[in-house]
Amino acid sequence: LSKRLDGIFNNLGGQGKLTEEDVNTALREVRLALIEADVNLKVARQFVDRVKEKAIGSDVMGSLTPAQQVLSIVQEELIEVLGGTGENNRLDLGGSPPNIIMLVGLQGSGKTTSAAKLANYLRKQGQRPLLVAADMYRPAAVNQIKSLGKQLNIPVYSEPMGADPVDICVNALDYAREQAISVMILDTAGRLNIDERMMNEVTNIRARLKPREVLLVADAMTGQEAVRVADDFNKAVSLTGMVLTKMDGDARGGAALSIRSVTGVPVKFMGMGEKTDALEPFYPDRLASRILGLGDVLSLIERAQESIDQEEALKAQAKLQQGKFDLEDFLNAMHQLKRMGPLRQVMEMMPGFNKIAQMPEMEEALEGDHLKYIEAMILSMTKEERRNPDIIDGSRRKRISRGSGTTVQELNQLLEQFKEMRTMIRQMSSGKGPWAQMARQY
Ligand code: GDP
Ligand code: MG
């Protein structure tokens, strides 16, 4: 989205009121972005229509371009549809214990994994969880949850193959009461496609156990299919929420918007990996940014805070604001980025920076020994050269490359990279780049 909108930003210069044409132009791109993010076609169209109504005739705020204004309305609306900042995207464990959480969803969507993740998450919050193996269609399923339970040291209630899933859940409830369990998580069976027998089974379990939460586990990669699946499950068992899994992959999470719009079911958690701690509570603002391709700035900041030296970061920021950025800062930035993890992934979360991340040299620069070479080159420079790389002429280049055991070409490449990064950073910090505005909102 950012790339396409960059073009439009350039074409929309004026200020004042948003005209229908401004809005239409921007919204066409937004609709495409939604569809690219796997939002259901009909949902995308309805969403864009709603934004259009709000946007036309609204005043363009002082410092925004019309396209930015449209985008900010889009983002606000998206957050609203995804659940706003309301409490309904939190897990409800307000009943008398044991509270029951039932997981439903298609085979392979991540129910068993999510059951273990949830148990792990809730135990950290002081709960005493019990996992219940109610998927009796594959022996492997029972073993899978048993081994997850063992790994986490969380009890698993199971019965021999052939037992009736409804009975298992009822017996598990007795067991939970005896053992002073505070929350019970039911891992139910899935089917490649929804079939009647499975639906009857989950309906019966729901009726007998009266779970506090019935969560649909949905694979973020499902895309256009997601709405139908969610609708069917919602009709059968009346869902209270959703766990959107596999959000660590490429999926932008449009399925969440589709499901939410059509069924009203709020997303409560996101699965971010195969490990048992890869579960995050749901934040609508973050998903909204991700769906729009704006970059998940908040996640980035959190991650950066974990790995970045605060003081260094503040220093760098102050320098940036003064428009100064030298090779020493560059080297620092490279070190910090390396610590933050896979460069591309981190940078793609940052508005404006995804362009830098897409420069193949940048990725290369942080792989293997490249950083060492960069370091050697920069250390072979005089202080003055580091502060003001523009003075590095031909003879200085020869001296530096000889001193660092690199070639002049490698040095040229480094200086080139540095210049590109400096330009980009200047644009961002001057607040003129198209994404500077968006970035400031966070
Ligand atoms: P079930 O059939 O619904 O119980 O699905 P499983 O829990 O067995 O998961 C199916 C596959 O998806 C397994 O290989 C899991 O490791 C994987 N999986 C589940 N959740 C996630 C997630 O959030 N991210 C990733 N990358 N993989 C996941
Ligand atoms: Mg399973």
From TrEMBL:
An MF annotation (GO) of this entry: GTP binding
GO biological process, one term: SRP-dependent cotranslational protein targeting to membrane
UniProt catalytic activity: GTP + H2O = GDP + phosphate + H(+)
Location (main, coarse): cytoplasm
UniProt superkingdom: Bacteria
Subcellular localization, as worded in the UniProt entry: Cytoplasm
Keyword Aminoacyl-tRNA synthetase recorded: no
InterPro entries: AAA+_ATPase, P-loop_NTPase, Signal_recog_part_SRP54_M_sf, Signal_recog_particl_SRP54_hlx, Signal_recog_particle_SRP54_M, SRP, SRP54, SRP54_GTPase_dom
Ranges where the SRP54-type proteins GTP-binding domain occurs: 266-279
Residue positions binding GTP: 105-112, 187-191, 245-248
SMART domains: AAA, SRP54, SRP54_N
SUPFAM superfamilies: P-loop containing nucleoside triphosphate hydrolases, Signal peptide-binding domain
EC top class named in words: hydrolase
Gene Ontology cellular component terms for the protein in this record: signal recognition particle
E.C. code: 3.6.5.4
Protein family (similarity comment): Belongs to the GTP-binding SRP family. SRP54 subfamily.
HAMAP family: SRP54
Oligomeric form and interacting partners: Part of the signal recognition particle protein translocation system, which is composed of SRP and FtsY.
Role, per record: Involved in targeting and insertion of nascent membrane proteins into the cytoplasmic membrane. Binds to the hydrophobic signal sequence of the ribosome-nascent chain (RNC) as it emerges from the ribosomes. The SRP-RNC complex is then targeted to the cytoplasmic membrane where it interacts with the SRP receptor FtsY.
Protein name: Signal recognition particle protein
